[in-house]
Structure formats: C-alpha cells, structure tokens
Design brief:
about 280 residues; 9 helices
Length: about 280
C-alpha cells in the first residue's frame, strides 16, 4: 500500500432504503468524483502515469468482469454494481519508475447469503494536520453513506486492518461483530458511523452534539450519524479518544479490553465500557 495511510470502511446489511445495489453505486460513484478526483484527473491527461483498473465479480464462482481505464466504461461498471455483485474493486496505479498503488476502493459480501457486506477505501493523507483535507475525507464518507442506512463505518489513520479496535482487544469474531452491529457499536475511531438504532439509544444527533465529545456530528438522511472526533487526523489524541469512548460507551460491547500483540496499531481506551456512568 505504498503511499497510502488512510483506511475508510463502512458495513451494510440489506436494510438500505433503495436496496443494496444502489448503496454500492453510491459508494463507488462518490469515491470516483470526490475521494479520487485528483487521480481521475491525472488519468484523464492521458500521459500514462496514472491508470485505473476495475472489476466486478457477480457471483463467488464467476470470472471477474474487468474494466481497464474504468472511466471510459463507467456506465457498464455501474450497471454491474446495481446488480449487487459479490465483489467489486477500483484500483489506481502509477508506473513512474516502479509500480505503485495510489488508491483503492472495494466491496465484498462478508457472509455467504449476501445479507451483510462491507466497502472500503484506501488513500493518502499528505497533510494529516490540515483541517480542510481531513474534512474532505469525512465529507466523502457522509456523501457515500447518506442514503444507505449503514450498520457501521470508520476512518482510521495508519491502520488498514479489517478488525476494529474493539474486535481486536475484546477478541470478538468479525462475523459476530457484523451480525450484532445494530445492537452494539463495533468500535470507535477518528471518524465513526453509528447506526440509527444505536444513535437513538444515545439520544440522537442533538444529544451527541451536546456531549461536546465530537468536532462534527453529521446525521445521515437514511438513518445513523457520522461522528468526527477532532478537526484533523493528527489531532485525534488519547484525550480526544477518551471523550469519544465515554460518549459512546452505552452502546459499546462490554468486556475488559486487552492489547493483542498481533495488532500493535490498534488504539483503544483500556476500560470496560460497562464501567462508564
């Protein structure tokens, strides 16, 4: 993942108001026009320094349908997404001297019955202490999820693991975490998406804003709320993380967290959420 240091993830079930296929279209379309705009423009120059590749796998045993220079075939790519495929991916590559991956967004079904799926994106934050560029990351996630009623989401800096911080330190299985994501919040990060059911238990967007634990509180039209902890990625200090943890503790899974040597990059508050009053 040369050059990339930001990981963005969202998880979904089939509760999306317009159906899961439309949620996929919205995720990839927003990534194309917002998150990867500079890469799309660089490829459009036609000098060969940046190249996009994409594929769609409709069913798990199918051969992938490939789209080199996906912008030229965007309509066909979206048609594949609308059919809610088992997996899809866009990757931006550079061939300057050596092959380098500049950005990626993907999705896949996490359960065989297709009832739960995740989407992710990897990008570079060249200025993690710049409020404007950091806000753009959150704005992307808000636009990508606004009509989807997601079960969870997050933005992490220098952590590309599919396990959330709580999955790791509470030794929760990913499958269990995903299945229970409308009962327990799967984790917390610099930016966290709380599903509608859990946001309601926390008093809604107004109560979360009044808690003063977050820099921005952004409701999602189809349900849920996006919470930005600090104005910049670099500003997500342990003190800020503690405030986020305390605000979200009523909907976090209980248990005493323990560091896992296999995941040293995981940041967490070393307290049981059950003990927060």
């Amino acid at each position: 993942m040369s050059g990339m240091n930001v990981y963005i993830e969202a998880s979904f079930d089939t509760a999306a108001p317009d159906g899961p296929g439309e949620s996929l279209v919205q995720w990839f379309r927003t990534a194309w026009v917002q998150l990867f705009r500079s890469l799309v423009e660089a490829e459009a120059k036609g000098d060969g320094e940046v190249e996009s590749r994409a594929h769609v796998v409709q069913h798990i045993d199918d051969r992938p349908r490939r789209f080199p220079h996906v912008g030229a075939a965007w309509e066909q790519f979206e048609e594949g997404l609308a059919m809610f495929p088992w997996a899809a991916d866009i990757t931006f590559l550079s061939y300057r001297g050596e092959l380098c991956e500049l950005g990626r967004t993907s999705s896949y079904h996490t359960l065989g019955d297709g009832s739960i799926w995740r989407a992710s994106a990897s990008v570079s934050a060249d200025a993690p202490d710049d409020a404007e560029s950091c806000a753009a990351l959150v704005d992307f996630l808000h636009a990508a999820l606004d009509t989807s009623n997601p079960t969870f989401g997050r933005i992490e800096w220098r952590n590309f693991n599919e396990l959330t911080n709580l999955d790791a330190v509470l030794r929760r299985k990913k499958r269990t975490s995903r299945r229970e994501s409308r009962r327990f919040l799967r984790g917390y990060a610099w930016a966290t998406v709380c599903p509608a059911e859990l946001a309601a238990r926390l008093g809604g967007a107004a109560a979360l804003e009044n808690s003063r634990a977050f820099h921005r509180v952004l409701p999602l039209r189809a349900g849920g709320v996006l919470l930005q902890a600090s104005d910049t990625l670099a500003g997500y200090t342990d003190q800020v993380m503690e405030r986020v943890f305390e605000a979200l503790a009523p909907v976090l899974p209980q248990g005493e967290p323990h560091p896992d040597p296999a995941y040293p990059e995981m940041r967490f508050v070393p307290r049981d959420a059950a003990g927060v009053r």
